[in-house]
Amino acid sequence: MHLTKIRLFDFRNFREAEVEFSGGLNVFYGDNAQGKTNLLEAIHFLCNLRPVRTTREQDLIAWDKTKAYLKGVFYTSSGPVDRELLLKAGDRKKVRECGVERHRLSELYWQIHAVFFSPDDLTLVKGRPSERRRFLDLIIARLKPQYGRYLSEYSRALFQRNRLLKDLRRNRTLITALDAWDEQLSSLGAAILRTRAAFTEKLFPLVRKYYLYFSREEREIDIRYAGSMVLADVPAESLREVFLAALRESLPRDLESGYTQVGPHRDDLQFLLGGRDLRYFGSQGQQRTLSLSLKFAERRIFFEATGVYPILLLDDALSELDVNRRRWILEGEEPCQVFVTTADLSAIPGDILKKGRVYRIRAGTVG
Ligand SMILES: Nc1ncnc2c1ncn2[C@@H]1O[C@H](COP(=O)(O)OP(=O)(O)OP(=O)(O)O)[C@@H](O)[C@H]1O
Protein backbone atom coordinates (compact mmCIF):
# COMPACT_ATOMS: atom_id res chain seq x y z
CA MET A 1 0.00 0.00 0.00
CA HIS A 2 1.26 3.46 -0.78
CA LEU A 3 0.09 6.98 -1.46
CA THR A 4 0.55 7.89 -5.10
CA LYS A 5 -0.89 11.40 -5.13
CA ILE A 6 -2.19 14.10 -2.82
CA ARG A 7 -4.20 17.29 -3.39
CA LEU A 8 -4.58 19.98 -0.75
CA PHE A 9 -6.67 23.11 -0.50
CA ASP A 10 -6.38 25.56 2.40
CA PHE A 11 -4.75 23.00 4.66
CA ARG A 12 -2.49 24.74 7.23
CA ASN A 13 -0.14 27.01 5.22
CA PHE A 14 -0.89 25.30 1.86
CA ARG A 15 -3.31 27.20 -0.39
CA GLU A 16 -3.42 24.69 -3.19
CA ALA A 17 -1.03 21.89 -4.09
CA GLU A 18 -0.98 18.65 -6.02
CA VAL A 19 1.94 16.26 -5.63
CA GLU A 20 2.78 12.77 -6.90
CA PHE A 21 4.91 10.49 -4.75
CA SER A 22 7.30 7.61 -5.10
CA GLY A 23 6.30 4.28 -3.57
CA GLY A 24 9.66 4.24 -1.78
CA LEU A 25 11.45 7.20 -0.23
CA ASN A 26 10.11 10.77 -0.39
CA VAL A 27 12.06 13.63 1.14
CA PHE A 28 10.49 16.98 2.05
CA TYR A 29 13.33 19.41 2.21
CA GLY A 30 13.42 23.13 3.05
CA ASP A 31 14.13 25.84 5.58
CA ASN A 32 12.29 26.10 8.87
CA ALA A 33 8.60 27.02 8.95
CA GLN A 34 7.96 26.38 5.24
CA GLY A 35 5.37 23.59 5.57
CA LYS A 36 7.29 20.28 5.71
CA THR A 37 5.56 19.08 8.87
CA ASN A 38 2.22 20.36 7.59
CA LEU A 39 2.51 18.19 4.48
CA LEU A 40 3.37 15.18 6.62
CA GLU A 41 0.35 15.95 8.80
CA ALA A 42 -1.87 16.07 5.72
CA ILE A 43 -0.70 12.56 4.76
CA HIS A 44 -1.25 11.32 8.32
CA PHE A 45 -4.75 12.80 8.41
CA LEU A 46 -5.68 11.16 5.13
CA CYS A 47 -4.37 7.78 6.27
CA ASN A 48 -5.47 7.62 9.90
CA LEU A 49 -8.48 9.98 9.67
CA ARG A 50 -7.39 11.87 12.77
CA PRO A 51 -4.77 14.56 13.35
CA VAL A 52 -1.36 13.84 14.79
CA ARG A 53 -1.41 13.68 18.58
CA THR A 54 -3.93 15.99 20.23
CA THR A 55 -4.17 18.65 17.54
CA ARG A 56 -7.77 19.78 17.00
CA GLU A 57 -9.10 19.07 13.53
CA GLN A 58 -10.28 22.65 13.13
CA ASP A 59 -6.71 23.89 13.60
CA LEU A 60 -5.78 22.20 10.35
CA ILE A 61 -7.84 24.68 8.33
CA ALA A 62 -5.77 27.61 6.99
CA TRP A 63 -6.14 30.48 9.43
CA ASP A 64 -7.90 32.88 7.08
CA LYS A 65 -10.26 30.22 5.66
CA THR A 66 -13.28 28.28 6.87
CA LYS A 67 -12.78 25.06 4.90
CA ALA A 68 -9.94 22.71 4.05
CA TYR A 69 -9.93 19.84 1.56
CA LEU A 70 -7.58 16.89 1.10
CA LYS A 71 -7.60 14.13 -1.45
CA GLY A 72 -5.26 11.15 -1.57
CA VAL A 73 -4.98 8.40 -4.13
CA PHE A 74 -3.66 5.17 -2.59
CA TYR A 75 -2.46 2.08 -4.30
CA THR A 76 -3.68 -0.90 -2.27
CA SER A 77 -3.83 -4.68 -2.75
CA SER A 78 -7.42 -4.26 -3.97
CA GLY A 79 -6.47 -1.60 -6.51
CA PRO A 80 -6.48 2.21 -6.38
CA VAL A 81 -8.51 3.86 -3.62
CA ASP A 82 -9.18 7.56 -3.51
CA ARG A 83 -10.04 9.19 -0.25
CA GLU A 84 -11.30 12.74 0.32
CA LEU A 85 -11.55 14.72 3.53
CA LEU A 86 -13.45 17.94 3.97
CA LEU A 87 -13.06 20.08 7.07
CA LYS A 88 -15.47 22.92 7.71
CA ALA A 89 -15.32 25.36 10.63
CA GLY A 90 -17.89 24.39 13.27
CA ASP A 91 -18.83 21.13 11.52
CA ARG A 92 -17.80 17.46 11.64
CA LYS A 93 -15.32 16.31 9.03
CA LYS A 94 -16.67 14.56 5.97
CA VAL A 95 -14.93 11.52 4.56
CA ARG A 96 -15.50 10.09 1.10
CA GLU A 97 -13.90 6.96 -0.25
CA CYS A 98 -14.10 6.25 -3.97
CA GLY A 99 -16.75 8.96 -4.19
CA VAL A 100 -19.04 7.55 -1.47
CA GLU A 101 -19.51 9.41 1.80
CA ARG A 102 -18.57 7.21 4.75
CA HIS A 103 -19.95 7.58 8.26
CA ARG A 104 -18.52 4.51 10.00
CA LEU A 105 -14.86 5.44 9.88
CA SER A 106 -13.77 2.28 11.69
CA GLU A 107 -14.66 0.38 8.50
CA LEU A 108 -11.86 2.29 6.76
CA TYR A 109 -9.14 1.58 9.30
CA TRP A 110 -7.90 -1.76 8.11
CA GLN A 111 -6.36 -1.06 4.75
CA ILE A 112 -4.57 2.26 5.12
CA HIS A 113 -2.48 3.28 8.07
CA ALA A 114 0.48 5.57 8.75
CA VAL A 115 2.91 5.71 11.64
CA PHE A 116 4.15 9.19 12.51
CA PHE A 117 7.35 9.76 14.40
CA SER A 118 8.84 13.06 15.53
CA PRO A 119 11.12 14.16 18.37
CA ASP A 120 7.95 15.16 20.28
CA ASP A 121 7.29 11.46 20.76
CA LEU A 122 9.71 11.63 23.64
CA THR A 123 6.54 12.29 25.64
CA LEU A 124 5.71 8.59 25.15
CA VAL A 125 8.56 7.90 27.55
CA LYS A 126 8.87 11.05 29.63
CA GLY A 127 5.30 12.27 29.57
CA ARG A 128 2.34 11.45 31.76
CA PRO A 129 0.85 7.95 32.02
CA SER A 130 -2.09 9.15 29.90
CA GLU A 131 0.31 9.52 26.91
CA ARG A 132 1.29 5.85 27.14
CA ARG A 133 -2.30 4.70 27.64
CA ARG A 134 -3.30 6.74 24.62
CA PHE A 135 -0.55 5.12 22.55
CA LEU A 136 -1.83 1.63 23.47
CA ASP A 137 -5.49 2.51 23.14
CA LEU A 138 -5.21 4.13 19.72
CA ILE A 139 -3.45 1.15 18.19
CA ILE A 140 -5.75 -1.42 19.75
CA ALA A 141 -8.91 0.49 18.85
CA ARG A 142 -7.73 0.73 15.29
CA LEU A 143 -7.18 -3.00 15.05
CA LYS A 144 -10.27 -3.87 17.11
CA PRO A 145 -13.07 -1.31 16.77
CA GLN A 146 -14.97 -3.13 19.54
CA TYR A 147 -12.22 -2.00 21.94
CA GLY A 148 -12.93 1.64 21.04
CA ARG A 149 -16.53 1.07 22.10
CA TYR A 150 -15.44 -0.47 25.43
CA LEU A 151 -13.27 2.58 26.04
CA SER A 152 -15.99 5.13 25.38
CA GLU A 153 -18.57 3.25 27.47
CA TYR A 154 -16.01 2.86 30.24
CA SER A 155 -15.24 6.58 30.33
CA ARG A 156 -18.96 7.39 30.41
CA ALA A 157 -19.47 5.03 33.38
CA LEU A 158 -16.36 6.43 35.07
CA PHE A 159 -17.63 9.98 34.66
CA GLN A 160 -20.95 9.03 36.29
CA ARG A 161 -19.26 7.17 39.15
CA ASN A 162 -16.95 10.13 39.84
CA ARG A 163 -19.92 12.48 39.84
CA LEU A 164 -21.72 10.25 42.28
CA LEU A 165 -18.64 10.12 44.55
CA LYS A 166 -18.75 13.90 44.80
CA ASP A 167 -22.53 13.96 45.37
CA LEU A 168 -22.14 11.37 48.14
CA ARG A 169 -20.19 13.86 50.19
CA ARG A 170 -23.38 15.88 50.53
CA ASN A 171 -25.98 13.12 50.47
CA ARG A 172 -25.04 9.69 51.83
CA THR A 173 -28.36 8.08 50.87
CA LEU A 174 -27.21 8.06 47.24
CA ILE A 175 -24.84 5.19 48.09
CA THR A 176 -27.38 2.66 46.79
CA ALA A 177 -26.71 3.90 43.25
CA LEU A 178 -23.02 3.05 43.47
CA ASP A 179 -23.37 -0.71 42.92
CA ALA A 180 -24.80 -0.29 39.43
CA TRP A 181 -21.84 1.87 38.33
CA ASP A 182 -19.35 -0.53 39.94
CA GLU A 183 -20.92 -3.44 38.04
CA GLN A 184 -20.69 -1.58 34.74
CA LEU A 185 -17.21 -0.29 35.35
CA SER A 186 -15.86 -3.69 36.34
CA SER A 187 -17.24 -5.58 33.35
CA LEU A 188 -16.11 -2.94 30.84
CA GLY A 189 -12.80 -2.51 32.67
CA ALA A 190 -12.18 -6.27 32.62
CA ALA A 191 -12.76 -6.32 28.85
CA ILE A 192 -10.27 -3.46 28.45
CA LEU A 193 -7.68 -5.16 30.66
CA ARG A 194 -8.06 -8.46 28.82
CA THR A 195 -7.60 -6.82 25.42
CA ARG A 196 -4.63 -4.77 26.59
CA ALA A 197 -2.97 -7.88 28.06
CA ALA A 198 -3.31 -9.79 24.78
CA PHE A 199 -1.96 -6.79 22.87
CA THR A 200 1.01 -6.03 25.12
CA GLU A 201 2.04 -9.67 24.90
CA LYS A 202 2.73 -9.00 21.21
CA LEU A 203 3.95 -5.43 21.58
CA PHE A 204 6.54 -5.77 24.33
CA PRO A 205 8.85 -8.32 22.64
CA LEU A 206 8.84 -6.13 19.52
CA VAL A 207 9.75 -2.99 21.48
CA ARG A 208 12.56 -4.95 23.16
CA LYS A 209 13.81 -6.17 19.79
CA TYR A 210 13.85 -2.68 18.21
CA TYR A 211 15.39 -1.11 21.29
CA LEU A 212 18.24 -3.61 21.17
CA TYR A 213 18.69 -2.96 17.49
CA PHE A 214 18.58 0.85 17.68
CA SER A 215 20.63 1.20 20.86
CA ARG A 216 23.19 -1.54 20.30
CA GLU A 217 23.15 -1.96 24.03
CA GLU A 218 23.95 -5.33 25.45
CA ARG A 219 21.13 -5.17 27.96
CA GLU A 220 17.53 -5.84 27.10
CA ILE A 221 14.91 -3.39 28.16
CA ASP A 222 12.28 -4.73 30.53
CA ILE A 223 8.74 -3.50 29.85
CA ARG A 224 5.90 -3.90 32.29
CA TYR A 225 2.25 -3.10 32.35
CA ALA A 226 2.05 -1.14 35.59
CA GLY A 227 -1.53 -1.58 36.74
CA SER A 228 -3.35 0.25 39.49
CA MET A 229 -4.40 -3.21 40.74
CA VAL A 230 -2.26 -6.25 41.35
CA LEU A 231 -3.31 -8.58 38.54
CA ALA A 232 -0.37 -10.95 38.24
CA ASP A 233 -1.64 -14.52 37.97
CA VAL A 234 -5.29 -13.45 37.83
CA PRO A 235 -6.97 -15.57 35.12
CA ALA A 236 -8.77 -13.57 32.44
CA GLU A 237 -12.20 -14.86 33.54
CA SER A 238 -11.68 -13.55 37.08
CA LEU A 239 -10.66 -10.00 36.12
CA ARG A 240 -14.17 -8.65 36.60
CA GLU A 241 -14.50 -9.95 40.16
CA VAL A 242 -11.00 -8.77 41.07
CA PHE A 243 -11.73 -5.29 39.71
CA LEU A 244 -15.07 -5.17 41.48
CA ALA A 245 -13.41 -6.10 44.78
CA ALA A 246 -10.70 -3.46 44.19
CA LEU A 247 -13.37 -0.81 43.58
CA ARG A 248 -15.05 -1.69 46.86
CA GLU A 249 -11.77 -1.67 48.71
CA SER A 250 -10.77 1.73 47.37
CA LEU A 251 -14.15 3.33 48.17
CA PRO A 252 -12.92 5.26 51.25
CA ARG A 253 -10.05 6.76 49.21
CA ASP A 254 -12.37 7.41 46.28
CA LEU A 255 -14.87 9.22 48.49
CA GLU A 256 -12.14 11.36 49.94
CA SER A 257 -10.65 12.36 46.59
CA GLY A 258 -13.90 12.37 44.60
CA TYR A 259 -12.21 10.19 41.95
CA THR A 260 -12.04 6.48 41.17
CA GLN A 261 -8.51 5.45 42.06
CA VAL A 262 -8.30 1.99 40.50
CA GLY A 263 -8.95 0.73 37.00
CA PRO A 264 -7.45 0.73 33.52
CA HIS A 265 -7.78 4.55 33.40
CA ARG A 266 -4.98 4.71 36.00
CA ASP A 267 -2.62 2.17 34.47
CA ASP A 268 0.76 2.86 32.92
CA LEU A 269 3.69 1.27 31.14
CA GLN A 270 7.05 1.02 32.81
CA PHE A 271 10.39 0.73 31.01
CA LEU A 272 13.32 -0.58 32.99
CA LEU A 273 16.95 -0.87 32.03
CA GLY A 274 19.18 -2.64 34.52
CA GLY A 275 16.28 -2.38 36.96
CA ARG A 276 16.08 1.44 36.68
CA ASP A 277 13.12 3.32 35.28
CA LEU A 278 14.14 4.89 31.95
CA ARG A 279 11.57 7.60 32.44
CA TYR A 280 13.59 9.09 35.31
CA PHE A 281 17.08 7.62 34.90
CA GLY A 282 17.47 7.17 31.17
CA SER A 283 19.68 9.47 29.11
CA GLN A 284 18.04 11.67 26.48
CA GLY A 285 19.43 9.30 23.81
CA GLN A 286 18.01 6.20 25.52
CA GLN A 287 14.62 7.84 25.87
CA ARG A 288 14.60 8.87 22.21
CA THR A 289 15.63 5.38 21.14
CA LEU A 290 12.83 3.92 23.19
CA SER A 291 10.21 6.22 21.68
CA LEU A 292 11.43 5.28 18.20
CA SER A 293 11.28 1.59 19.16
CA LEU A 294 7.67 1.99 20.30
CA LYS A 295 6.76 3.46 16.90
CA PHE A 296 8.57 0.74 14.99
CA ALA A 297 6.83 -1.87 17.10
CA GLU A 298 3.51 -0.21 16.19
CA ARG A 299 4.43 -0.46 12.53
CA ARG A 300 5.33 -4.13 12.82
CA ILE A 301 2.10 -4.92 14.72
CA PHE A 302 0.07 -3.45 11.87
CA PHE A 303 2.04 -5.44 9.38
CA GLU A 304 1.45 -8.65 11.31
CA ALA A 305 -2.26 -7.94 11.64
CA THR A 306 -2.96 -6.78 8.09
CA GLY A 307 -0.11 -8.06 5.94
CA VAL A 308 0.58 -4.47 4.86
CA TYR A 309 3.32 -2.20 6.15
CA PRO A 310 1.96 1.19 7.20
CA ILE A 311 3.38 4.31 5.59
CA LEU A 312 6.21 5.70 7.69
CA LEU A 313 6.23 9.46 8.38
CA LEU A 314 9.47 10.69 9.94
CA ASP A 315 9.37 14.32 10.99
CA ASP A 316 12.80 15.70 11.68
CA ALA A 317 13.81 12.33 13.07
CA LEU A 318 16.96 11.47 11.14
CA SER A 319 19.24 13.65 13.23
CA GLU A 320 18.57 11.28 16.10
CA LEU A 321 19.98 8.27 14.31
CA ASP A 322 23.45 7.21 13.29
CA VAL A 323 24.16 6.61 9.63
CA ASN A 324 23.63 2.82 9.77
CA ARG A 325 20.18 3.16 11.27
CA ARG A 326 19.24 5.90 8.83
CA ARG A 327 20.26 3.55 6.08
CA TRP A 328 18.28 0.66 7.53
CA ILE A 329 15.13 2.75 7.82
CA LEU A 330 15.39 4.59 4.52
CA GLU A 331 16.56 1.70 2.38
CA GLY A 332 13.76 -0.38 3.71
CA GLU A 333 14.85 -3.69 5.14
CA GLU A 334 11.18 -3.70 6.06
CA PRO A 335 9.89 -2.32 2.78
CA CYS A 336 7.33 0.47 2.83
CA GLN A 337 6.72 3.98 1.65
CA VAL A 338 8.64 6.50 3.72
CA PHE A 339 8.22 10.28 3.98
CA VAL A 340 10.98 12.21 5.65
CA THR A 341 11.34 15.90 6.46
CA THR A 342 14.72 17.52 6.77
CA ALA A 343 16.29 20.97 6.60
CA ASP A 344 19.59 19.33 5.70
CA LEU A 345 19.82 16.93 2.75
CA SER A 346 23.24 15.72 3.87
CA ALA A 347 21.43 13.86 6.69
CA ILE A 348 20.51 11.30 4.02
CA PRO A 349 23.26 9.07 2.60
CA GLY A 350 23.90 10.16 -1.03
CA ASP A 351 23.24 6.78 -2.70
CA ILE A 352 19.86 6.49 -0.93
CA LEU A 353 18.91 10.05 -1.79
CA LYS A 354 19.51 9.29 -5.47
CA LYS A 355 16.90 6.52 -5.37
CA GLY A 356 14.29 8.66 -3.58
CA ARG A 357 12.31 11.72 -4.67
CA VAL A 358 13.15 15.09 -3.21
CA TYR A 359 10.56 17.87 -2.88
CA ARG A 360 11.56 21.40 -2.03
CA ILE A 361 8.99 22.95 0.34
CA ARG A 362 8.87 26.72 0.28
CA ALA A 363 6.17 28.90 1.90
CA GLY A 364 3.41 26.32 1.51
CA THR A 365 4.36 25.28 -2.02
CA VAL A 366 5.94 22.09 -3.28
CA GLY A 367 8.68 22.23 -5.89
N1 LIG B 1 -3.80 26.49 10.30
C1 LIG B 1 -2.74 27.14 9.78
N2 LIG B 1 -2.92 28.07 8.80
C2 LIG B 1 -1.86 28.71 8.26
N3 LIG B 1 -0.58 28.52 8.64
C3 LIG B 1 -0.35 27.61 9.60
C4 LIG B 1 -1.41 26.88 10.22
N4 LIG B 1 -0.88 26.05 11.15
C5 LIG B 1 0.45 26.27 11.12
N5 LIG B 1 0.79 27.19 10.19
C6 LIG B 1 2.13 27.71 9.85
O1 LIG B 1 2.73 26.89 8.86
C7 LIG B 1 4.13 27.19 8.87
C8 LIG B 1 4.92 25.94 8.53
O2 LIG B 1 4.87 25.03 9.62
P1 LIG B 1 5.60 23.60 9.59
O3 LIG B 1 5.55 23.10 10.98
O4 LIG B 1 5.06 22.75 8.52
O5 LIG B 1 7.11 24.03 9.22
P2 LIG B 1 8.35 23.12 8.87
O6 LIG B 1 8.72 23.38 7.43
O7 LIG B 1 8.13 21.73 9.27
O8 LIG B 1 9.45 23.81 9.80
P3 LIG B 1 10.59 23.24 10.77
O9 LIG B 1 11.74 22.86 9.88
O10 LIG B 1 10.89 24.46 11.57
O11 LIG B 1 10.03 22.13 11.56
C9 LIG B 1 4.45 27.77 10.24
O12 LIG B 1 4.84 29.11 10.09
C10 LIG B 1 3.13 27.67 10.98
O13 LIG B 1 2.93 28.76 11.86
From TrEMBL:
Q: What PANTHER family is this protein classified in?
A: DNA REPLICATION AND REPAIR PROTEIN RECF
Q: What does this protein do?
A: The RecF protein is involved in DNA metabolism; it is required for DNA replication and normal SOS inducibility. RecF binds preferentially to single-stranded, linear DNA. It also seems to bind ATP.
The organism is Thermosediminibacter litoriperuensis
Give the record's GO CC terms.
cytoplasm
| Domain RecF/RecN/SMC N-terminal stretches | 3-343
**What family does this chain come from, according to its entry?**
Belongs to the RecF family.
Subcellular location, record wording: Cytoplasm
Q: Which gene encodes it?
A: recF
Protein name from the UniProt record? DNA replication and repair protein RecF
